[in-house]
């Protein structure tokens, strides 16, 4: 089956043609800037290809796209359109801007250093120090960890070595407060980063911890 994805109107919505006869509807997604049009197109093609392979996505169903969560809903035009989690409230809001931005940025970092793509779940725990939410330069390291933890420990120069001062937060809160750090979070266990220069490297001792 030939599936095409077209940019609509102002370039902020992409929609399929070729799914209607097989699935009963076309798929569409919207972003908040035409600068994300290529990423939006990639998302729509990802969903359409999944459905064309015989996998059903029903209205109201949650669809994970890399790190972020989206949800499919039928609109009043009979299209399956997508919403996404708001990073702070975790309510679903219309569009897929955060989902496609995280996909692009996290894949970019992983590809740059030849690392596999291993995003945490949004509900997994990240350990942070004072200064992370305040916007300070940060250092991150990802340790092999139990399932409820992402493995990420992110600290700043405000950390004095006293682990009792550290806080645990969910990964989606880090994305909300420090969107500049979210691009690093899909690096696998054993990786470190310095945010100020976007330095990333693998630490075998950490991976073996």
Note down, in words, how this protein is organized.
This protein is of the alpha+beta class and 209 residues long. It folds into two domains: 4-100, no CATH class; 116-207, no CATH class. Helices cover 23% and strands 29% of the residues. It is built from five helices and 13 strands. The protein has helices at 20-23, 37-52, 97-113, 171-177, 204-207; strands at residues 4-8, 13-17, 27-30, 62-65, 68-74, 80-85, 92-94, 125-128, 139-142, 149-155, 167-170, 191-194, 199-202. Strands 1, 2, 3, 4, 5, 6 and 7 form a seven-stranded mixed beta sheet that branches. The protein has a six-stranded mixed beta sheet with strand order 11-8-10-9-12-13. Strand 4 (62-65) and strand 5 (68-74) form a beta hairpin.
Structure described in brief:
The chain is of the alpha+beta class and 209 residues long. Helices cover 23% and strands 29% of the residues.
Domain count: the total is: 2
Give me the secondary-structure category: alpha+beta
CA-CA gap between termini = 48 Å
Q: Poorly predicted ranges (pLDDT <50, ≥5 residues)?
A: none
The number of helical segments is 5
The quaternary state of the protein chains shown equals single chain
Strand coverage percent: 25-35%
- Whole-number mean pLDDT: 94
Largest sheet: 7 strands, mixed
Features:
alpha+beta; 5 helices; 209 residues; 2 domains; 23% helix; 7-stranded mixed sheet; elongated; 6-stranded mixed sheet; 29% strand
């Amino acid at each position: 089956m030939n599936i095409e994805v077209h940019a609509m109107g102002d370039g902020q919505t992409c929609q399929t043609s070729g799914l209607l006869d097989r699935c009963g509807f076309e798929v569409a997604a919207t972003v908040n800037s035409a600068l994300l049009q290529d990423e939006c197109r990639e998302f729509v093609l990802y969903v359409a290809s999944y459905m064309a392979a015989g996998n059903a996505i029903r209205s109201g169903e949650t669809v994970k796209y890399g790190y972020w969560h989206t949800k499919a809903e039928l609109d009043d035009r009979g299209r399956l359109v997508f919403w996404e989690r708001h990073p702070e409230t975790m309510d679903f809001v219309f569009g897929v801007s955060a989902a496609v931005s995280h996909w692009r940025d996290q894949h970019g970092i992983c590809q740059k250093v030849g690392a596999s793509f291993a995003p945490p779940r949004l509900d997994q725990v990240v350990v942070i120090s004072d200064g992370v939410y305040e916007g300070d330069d940060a250092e991150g390291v990802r340790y092999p960890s139990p399932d409820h933890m992402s493995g990420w420990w992110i600290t700043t120069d405000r950390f004095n070595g006293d682990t009792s001062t550290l806080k645990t937060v969910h990964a989606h809160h880090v994305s909300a407060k420090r969107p500049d750090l979210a691009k690093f979070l899909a690096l696998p266990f054993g990786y470190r980063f310095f945010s100020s220069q976007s330095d990333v490297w693998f630490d075998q001792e950490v991976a073996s911890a």
